[in-house]
Amino acid sequence: MEFQSLPPFNLIEPERLSKILSQLKERGVENLSFASKGYRGVVFKGYLKGRPVAVKVKRSDTPKEVPLKEFNFLSHLFNLYGPETPAPAPHFATEDFVVMEWIEGKPFGQAFKEFGRQVVREALKSVYQLDRAGVEHSEVKGEKHLIFNGQRVKVIDFESAKFKEKPRNLLQFVGYHLIGKELYRELGLERGELLKLMELYKREPEAAFRALTSKL
Fold first, then answer.
1. Which domains does the chain have, with CATH numbers?
2. Using an 8 Å Cβ cutoff, are 99 and 57 in contact?
3. Which residues contact 97 (CB under 8 A, 6 or more apart)?
4. Could you read off the pLDDT of 41-89 as tens digits, one per residue?
5. Rg of the chain over CA atoms, in angstroms?
6. Which segments within 94-209 are labelled E, that is strand?
């Protein structure tokens, strides 16, 4: 298997990368090209049975359980929601990498400028699904973790996720993006109204969610 563009070899030892490439080839992943690098992994785009996939390879300084941890969260969400999952659909994983659906789209901030309230409505649906599933993403404040594909907002990067009895994904999203960045003004909403809905969400999440999305 050859790369269309060279990966950052300082983050993955060539010998380990060669082994990973062989494993991916055996499982049918082809045409890998470097996409991006993060704190814990290096992401490549490839193809599995003709469909684009993301291959996230853990960095050499990342704990070995990280790929399997992310795969477990993606599987949990897919088992709950099927094709309507708010996250990439999982394919398979090892201690070195995780292969998942490739999400093509625009980060939340850029998408909001183009599509406005539709993007906010879809983002709220996705973070609400995470809350219902008992998954705390921990980084929904980061725009690069919310990708609008033209229809849905998909949440990516679950390395820092954790299971919690009462996740706060929706509260974090509203607090940071709608209130903190004052997007509520562009949406024609009132700050005080949002604060009341956030308090209601702590007691009656479904009622608060429905009330909030009805305003969009």
1. 14-101 (3.30.200.20), 106-214 (1.10.510)
2. no
3. 20, 23, 24, 55, 56, 57, 58, 67
4. 899 999 999 999 999 998 877 776 889 999 999 999 999 999 999 999 9
5. 18
6. 97-101, 106-107, 135-136, 146-148, 153-155, 162-163
